[in-house]
Write a structure and sequence with these properties.
By secondary structure, the protein is mainly beta. The chain has a single domain (4-203), classed as UDP N-Acetylglucosamine Acyltransferase, domain 1. It has one helix spanning 126-129; strands spanning 4-6, 11-12, 17-20, 29-31, 36-37, 42-44, 48-49, 54-55, 60-61, 66-67, 72-73, 78-79, 84-85, 90-91, 96-97, 102-103, 108-109, 114-115, 134-135, 140-141, 146-147, 152-153, 158-159, 164-165, 173-176, 181-185. The strands form five sheets. An eight-stranded parallel β-sheet has the order 1-4-7-10-13-16-19-22, with no helix packed on it. Strands 8-11-14-17-20-23-25-26 form an eight-stranded mixed β-sheet, with no helix packed on it. The longest helix has 4 residues, at 126-129. The radius of gyration is 17 Å and the shape is globular. The protein starts with a strand and ends in a 19-residue tail after the last strand. 35% of the residues are buried.
């Protein structure tokens, strides 16, 4: 049985492993047009990945993820199984995405972000209890952020670097700290470089 189906113009680096078999999966790995899979990446069978997908070196993507178009997963980042990742999502280097996370379109996840999904590890009801983490459309997650189980980050929210998020964050809110607290709305941010009237106005 075929383990790998790629679209047009694939670019696959040395020592990449595509279609790794986790035994229980029968569906092939499907990747759309114009992929750029860099060296030492490992992608398991059973993933469905859109066009213009790229990885950094040594990324690891487990089985049964659904990944949209124009997605980038950075060097040494890990994506576990059963996630849904929308279009135009950027996941930077050294990130950990556990099982059953929903990352919506245009979300941006900075380096060394860790998402946690288990309230009481190890749990015999893990496959149900671990669900619920959602990163909303266009949300921005700063570097070294930790996001806890069941947390929903609203569309357009901005999470400051180094924050620990244990509660839901509303849409378009700016949250920082440990534990993260909302300090303002995204429209209240200032562009310290004075290049724009305010940050993210280009997204309107």
């Amino acid at each position: 049985m075929e383990t790998l189906i790629t679209g047009k113009n694939p670019k696959i680096g040395k020592y990449a492993i595509l279609g790794e078999d986790p035994d229980k999966i029968t569906e092939p790995l499907v990747i759309g047009d114009n992929c750029n899979i860099r060296s030492h990446t490992v992608i398991y069978k059973g993933n469905r990945i859109g066009d213009n997908f790229q990885t950094g070196h040594g990324a690891m993507i487990r089985e049964e993820n659904v990944i949209g178009d124009n997605v980038s997963i950075g060097t040494h980042s890990i994506v576990e199984c059963g996630n849904t990742i929308g279009n135009n999502v950027r996941i930077h280097s050294n990130c950990f995405i556990p099982e059953f996370v929903v990352i919506e379109d245009n979300a941006w996840i900075g380096p060394c972000v860790a998402i946690l999904n288990t309230l009481h590890p190890p749990c015999p009801n893990f496959s149900n209890c671990a669900k619920g983490v959602v990163i909303g459309k266009g949300a921005k997650i700063g570097g070294n952020v930790t996001i806890g189980p069941k947390v929903k980050i609203g569309a357009g929210a901005v999470i400051g670097f180094g924050s620990v998020v244990v509660d839901d964050i509303p849409e378009n809110a700016v949250a920082v700290g440990n534990p993260a607290r909302v300090i303002k709305e995204k429209t209240e941010l200032n562009c310290v470089m004075k290049k724009f009237e305010r940050p993210y106005m280009w997204e309107q």
